[in-house]
Design goal:
15 helices; alpha/beta; four-stranded antiparallel β-sheet; single chain
Length: about 425
């Protein structure tokens, strides 16, 4: 990520197909005081807080598990049909902290292993590396997960004398692949988790951004009847990433020797209290105010953004078909996501960091090498294009530049 940021900084005029951040077109600084005031009114009118209690809630060290947990529970119910006890929600400093807390709680010793679909989000592998925990890769297929390989890896972990504690994935419009799981695969995955006794870490930052003609598929957590899913959420893509507000839904029961059964959320909270103490109450309040102004629906809060992402995805896929028709594809192919930010393109050359630097310098085009997302090698001839911060004009110009890069490299390969 540091390398990508550094390249983007050195080539500010390059088309930013590498950026996975949300579009900034609808950022509104003037709305922040209003959001804060809306949340204050919520504390007063709905929670019965007096002025002193409101000031303390917003300006003092806060509740470790967060102060917008009840609003997030409403949001999950409205947008995702997920019904959870607000006490099972831990509000975190971004979803990255939620991943870290979950891994630390579930993988207590070096013999505890997390599995992850490969390619996978680098935040997960980075968190595991900080904790000195192993990540065992599970192959991805065109339709999502190779479930047979998942079972093989679970059995291999146990054969090595280790314990497969959890399986991490982004089931909707994954970063980096853009792929999604169909309903049958989700149900089978939940059954496998119960049969082979592991939890699922469902990371779900993109689910509201599905294509217009793509029906919404229930989340794993919405289908979870046995508390097998720890749900990791983020308001970065759907509110504003500057607030750094994420959360974990951990409603699993933990039974410790000599203690009463309690929610896994309590374990996450204990770890968080030693890590970040609490998530900024002011940041939570502004995010909470935005939720309240939109009836606690992130779908309602992101109608304009959803339209932009749908438009951009259509333009990108149409532009790829135009420049690389099947009759003369030049060895270029791509997947067709049903929403989200990302498209993976396979090219007839090595798409590594050196090629990215060349692309930025000569062709003024940025993209992300897919090789960074694979454990143990892979993706060497693939690049990720993101549609989240580009304009229609940049999409057209960027695809022209991608065509020029492919033609240049194809000529060098044949020459």
């Amino acid at each position: 990520m540091n390398f990508l940021n550094e390249v983007a900084h050195r080539f500010p005029d390059a088309v930013p197909f590498a950026a996975g951040r949300p579009c900034e077109e609808f950022f509104d600084l003037d709305a922040l005081p209003r959001y804060l005031n809306t949340f204050q009114q919520y504390l007063s009118a709905e929670k019965g807080a007096d002025d002193r209690q409101v000031r303390r809630t917003l300006l003092q060290y806060g509740r470790t598990k967060g102060i917008i947990h009840e609003l997030l529970a409403r949001t999950l119910s409205l947008d995702e049909d997920i019904e959870v006890d607000p006490e099972s929600i831990v509000v975190t400093a971004g979803c990255q902290e939620a991943m870290f807390l979950a891994l630390r709680a579930l993988c207590a010793t070096s013999d505890d292993v997390v599995l992850a679909v490969s390619p996978t989000y680098v935040g997960l592998t980075g968190a595991a590396r900080l904790l000195d925990r192993e990540v065992w890769p599970v192959r991805e297929t065109e339709n999502g997960i190779d479930l047979d390989h998942l079972v093989e890896q679970v059995m291999a972990v146990r054969a090595a004398g280790k314990q497969p504690r959890a399986f991490y994935l982004v089931p909707d419009f994954a970063n980096p692949s853009g792929l999604s799981l169909d309903l049958d695969t989700r149900r089978t995955l939940l059954n496998l988790a119960a049969e082979h006794d592991f939890l699922i870490l469902e990371d779900n930052p993109y689910s509201v951004f599905h294509a217009e003609d793509s029906p919404k598929v229930p989340t794993l957590k919405a289908l979870d009847t046995n508390r097998r899913v720890v749900y990791l959420g983020s308001l970065a893509k759907t509110c504003f990433p500057g607030a750094r507000v994420g959360y974990a839904v951990a409603d699993q029961l933990v039974v410790s020797a000599g203690a009463e059964a309690h929610l896994l959320a309590e374990e996450l909270s204990k770890i968080k209290s030693m890590l970040t103490v609490n998530t900024s109450p002011l940041a939570q309040a502004m995010a909470g105010g935005k939720l309240l102004e939109n009836g606690c629906s992130l779908v309602a809060a992101n109608r304009a953004e959803i339209a932009v992402y749908r438009r951009n995805m259509c333009l990108l896929l149409k532009g790829l078909r135009k420049r690389f028709p099947e009759s003369h594809s030049r060895g270029v192919s791509w997947n067709i996501p049903r929403g989200g930010f990302f498209v993976v393109v396979t090219v007839p050359f090595i798409a590594d960091d050196a090629m990215l630097e060349h692309s930025a310098r000569k062709h003024h085009l940025l993209w992300t090498p897919m090789s960074h997302f694979y454990a143990g090698g892979g993706g060497t001839n693939q690049l990720r294009l993101s549609i989240s911060v580009v304009t229609p004009e940049q999409i057209e110009n960027g695809l022209d530049r991608l065509l020029a890069l492919v033609e240049e490299q194809s000529g060098q390969l044949t020459g």
